[in-house]
Structures are given as C-alpha cells and as structure tokens.
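Researcher: Following up on the earlier apo prediction. This time include the ligand. It's magnesium ion, with the SMILES given after the sequence.
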Amino acid sequence: MNNKMNKVELLHKNYIHSLKVNKRWVRLYQLIILLLIFFSWEISSRMKWIDPLIFSSPSKVWNLLVAKIQDGSLAANLGVTLTETVAGFLIATVLGVIIAAVLWWSPLLSKILDPYLVIFNAMPKVALGPVIIVAMGPGYTSIIANGVIICVIITAIVVYTSFKEVDPNYIKVLQAFGATRYQCFKEAILPASFPTIISTLKVNVGLSWVGVIVGEFLVSTKGLGYMIIYGFQVFNFTLVFLSLLVIAVLATIMYQLVDLLEKKLIKE
Amino acid sequence: MSFLQVQNIHHTYFTKASATTALSNISLTVEKGEFVSLLGPSGCGKTTMLSIISSLLEPTEGTVLLEGQPVSSSKNKIGYMLQQDYLFPWKTIEENILLGLKLSKQLNQKTKTHALDLLKQMGLNNGVEKQLPKQLSGGMRQRVALVRTLATEPKLLMLDEPFSALDYQTKLKLEDLLSDTIKAFGKTAILVTHDIGEAIAMSDRIFLLTSRPGTIYKTFEIPDSLRRLSPFDARNHEAYPAVFQMIWKELESFEQQNE
Ligand SMILES: Nc1ncnc2c1ncn2[C@@H]1O[C@H](COP(=O)(O)OP(=O)(O)O)[C@@H](O)[C@H]1O
Ligand SMILES: [Mg+2]
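Model: Understood. Below is the ligand-bound prediction.
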C-alpha cells in the first residue's frame, strides 16, 4: 500500500518535472527567435541587403533609445501617450457599461437605438478622427476621445448582451424578496457580468492604442504617435522603429496587467 | 376565512408564435399551518401557479388573497424557493442568507443573529458562513437556500421542486429536515413536485394537476396516520402504498381519458 503511494507520488513528480523541462525549451526557442530577428536585421542592414536608410538597424535604434532616454524626451512623449491611452480605455469601459445599463433599464430605448448601435459599431471609427478634432479642437481631449470612440460602442454591446444573459431565476429570487429594478441590477446583473466587463477591458487596451496613435498622427505635437509621424516626415526611420518597439512593449505590459487583474478578480 | 385563497385563476402566456394557456379555472384554499402539494407532470403549470401566488406574475384572470389581502400588497410575507439553490456565487454564505433582509431593509443585529442561528440548526456550522457557495455540496447549498428563504420570516413558504436536483439519499434527509423546520415554525407551505412519493410523505393535502391547460383534477387528503410521521417514516408506513396506488390510478385514468 505504502509502496504504491510512493510510486504514484514519484510518477507525479516526474510528470511535473517534465512539464517544467518542456516549458524551459519553449522559452529557449522563443528567445532564439527574438535574437535571430534582431541579428539578421542588424546583419542585413550592415551588409546593405536592405536599405539601411529605410529599415535602420537594431544598433542605431538602441543608440537613439539611449540618447532619447538621456535627454528625457522619450519619457515625456511616452508619458503623454500612456496617459491618453489609459484615460481612453478606462473612460470607454465605464461609459460603455453605463450605456449598457441604460439599455438594460429601458427595453424600449434599446429597441429604438438598436439600428444606430449596429451602424455605429460597423463603422470604421478612426475615420471619425478629423471630425472629432474639428469639433473638440486639437489637443489631449480629442486624442482621448479618439481612443474612447473606437471601443465604447462595442463595449456597450458586449456588456449589454451579458446583462441580458444573466439567468432570470436570479432575478426571480430577488423579486421574491421584493427587490426593485435597481436592486436587481446591483445585486445580480452587474456582478454576474463582471467577468465580461473585465474581458472587454482587455480588448479595449488594444483598441484604445489604435485610437490614440491615430489621433496623435492627426494633431499632436507630442507622444509616440507624433514621434512616428515626425520620423516619417524627416525621413528618420530609426525614430519610427524606436517608437514602434516602445509601443509594442508598453501595449504588451498593459495587456498583461489587465490579464493579471482578470485572473485575480475572477478567482474570487 | 382561509389563510390563502386562490380564486378562478386563468393564465395564458402570449408569445409571437403562440398563446399557451398554462392554467385554467384554478381555485383552492390553504389553511394556516397546512402543508399542501401541487402534484403534476412537467409542463402542467406548477411553476406558473407559484409565480402567480407570490405575485411575481400577474394572472390573466382571477385573484389571490393572503389573509384576505391581495398578494401584490403582501410583500415579504411569501418566501419562494426554487428548483436549484440559485445562491449568488460571488457572495459568501452569510451574504447570501442575509440578502432578503438586506433588500427589505430589515437587516439588524437581531435578524442577523436569527439567520445565523437558522444556519446552525440546519447543521451548517464550522465557519461555513464565510465560505463561497461553490465550496459546498449540493445538499448543503439547498439548505443554505432554505435558510435564505426562512430568514425574512415569511408566513407562506413556496417550494418549487426543491429536491429534484439532489441525489436520492440527500433528498430523503432534506425532506425530513424541511418538514421538521416547517412544523417547528408553524409555517404554511406549498410544495410543487412531480414525485408522488414525496407529495404523500410531506403533505397534509395534495392537489393533482392535469396538463394543457393545467386544472385541478382531484384533491387528496392524506390520512392522519401518515401526516403525524416524518417524511422518511411515512414512506415506510403500512398506509403509504395504498395512498400511492390511489393517486397512481387517478393519474393513469386521466391519461387514458386523454388518449
Ligand atoms: N414565459 C413563458 N412564455 C411562454 N410560455 C411559457 C412561459 N413559461 C411557461 N410557459 C409554458 O407554460 C406551461 C407551464 O409551464 P410551467 O409553469 O413552467 O410548468 P411546470 O412548472 O409544471 O413544469 C408550459 O407549457 C410552458 O411551456
Ligand atoms: Mg416548474
């Protein structure tokens, strides 16, 4: 009996060990691919297989990065874009949930507004950028608005759908206790939809980056989007690549943070 | 005057595709302290009936009076327990059982202590109140749901197939527990079930419903010898099989009429 137990434990340990080994191999290959990309980029740029003026090279990007960190201009631009993006996706998520709540509250209103939501959702929202800028003036507000508008409607639709899908028997339990519509919303509808709201947060991180960068393309004098457009205009593609890499890193970090938040909240 | 009077209830559900008459011409009375069952096949309108009695649903026709007052004006006098526990998964057991009190603004130290005492009486102690529903077994969860229903001290208790999602052994145990609790508090109760045995074991009176549309086909008085016993003992009493046979025959004869 005891012997058998030990054997099972041993097998389990072996299994866990093999999982770890496997994971290490995956990480190793991922690292190799990354190094390979940068390495071949550097080589082909130096050997002039690709035009170094257009495609720059990792070493040039790195040098520029160091310079920009030292003169503080990277931090300034990065701060601006980051603030706009975070503001954009938080406002969009809150606003989207509020719209969803209003739609849930009034079934008549939701029926009336349905075609408008569909049209607005189907529309490529970045196309509204110029209109927003004319309406709100060139500045932070219109860039944030650009980030908001791109995700607010889809958030509203997704969250509203999840509100409607809450098991009506939960509402029945509450109504049997004499709950008002507001109490039903607070006690059942909203908390039951938290997982959906968190997952829209995740989608909105990505979307609001699009909105904000496009907004910066159009107006701004600061930010990572501006750095890209500026680099493009003065033919400094090292600057463009630097901005792109910074955006990639930041967007990934933000996504991971929301992912972490999701895991924490859902576990409870 | 009876405790609960249900008078000439008709109910039709309207949808785009059809109009389904779920209940037709239902009249019944329930006395204070009585335990009655609505027995009938699935889809005969039992849940509809309970929804109407608890005024969650407005009947197409008819009235329901509780102590002489329309049920729509007797908020919180009726407790409703559903087929599954429907405990809120994100609330702790304590938050779940205090929900009714919170919603009706009756939550204070006294009512809270009472609710937690009830939980103990149901055999749920050792810090269960701080746990989440998913940490409990099906039978425990259904007991919590019962505590949640009883915590607001309803005068009338409605039980919609409360044991149908449980395994047989748990179901038998909970029948006894429920029966004891209801007797101890002197509550009036209406049980909905499609299980003949359960109806006999638990009730004083059984209304047999037929389907499409639901009507009361027959009423059975359960003999005193069975009523006095706990549900488990009633199932093993010598008078039990005869009552079972009688109800079984009525169900059969009704089915034959329909063919
Ligand atoms: N919301 C509804 N809309 C339309 N028809 C319904 C609705 N609820 C129940 N019904 C119909 O009414 C009949 C009775 O349903 P129900 O009261 O749930 O029966 P039971 O609880 O006895 O199984 C069924 O035929 C069912 O299809
Ligand atoms: Mg039912």
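Model: Chain A touches chain B through 18 residues (CB under 8 Å).
Researcher: Noted. I'll compare it with the apo version next.
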